[in-house]
Amino acid sequence: xxxxLEIVTNPDGYYFSHTSNRMWRKNQEAQPRSRCIGVDPNRxxxxxxxxxxxxxxxxxxxxxxxxxxxxxxxxxxxxxYSQMLLYPYGYSKTPxxxxxxxxxLAKKAITDLASLYGTRYRxxxxxxxxxxxxxxxxxxxxxxxxxxxxxxxxHTYKNPY
Length: 161
What we know:
The protein has helices spanning 11-19, 57-69, 99-117, 126-129, 138-158; strands at 84-87, 122-125. It is mainly alpha-helical.
C-alpha cells in the first residue's frame, strides 16, 4: 500500500491563520472586483458547490494528483478545527453509495481514537452531522442581497447628510 501525505494544502491561508486570524479558513487569493480576500478551498471541489469546481489552485493540484494515480482507495482530509469525522455528502441528502460502510468505519475510528485520551468525536455524513455544505443558494442569495444593497445605496445617495 502506498500512502501519500500532503501536510499543508493551503499554505498562504495557514500562514495567515498563524499571524493574523487564528480562525481563518480561506486562501489569500485576491478576488476580482471585490475587497474580500480569499476563497475557502473546502467549498470549491467538484461536489455540488455551484459551478466553482476546482477553481482554486490548491484544490486543482489535489484533484490532478488523485486523478493521475487513478487507483486511490481512500482519501482523508484532516482539518484542525472541531472533533468530527465526516464523510460524504454535504451537498445532498441522498446518501452516498457506501454510507453504511462509511458509518460503521467512522464509528470504529472514533471509538479507537477515544480509547487513548477519551476524546469524543461526532461522526456521520456532512449534511446530517453539521449542515448542508453546497452552493446552490449562492446566486439566489447574492441576487436578493443585491436588492437590499441597492436600497441602502439609493437611500445614502438621496440623503447625503
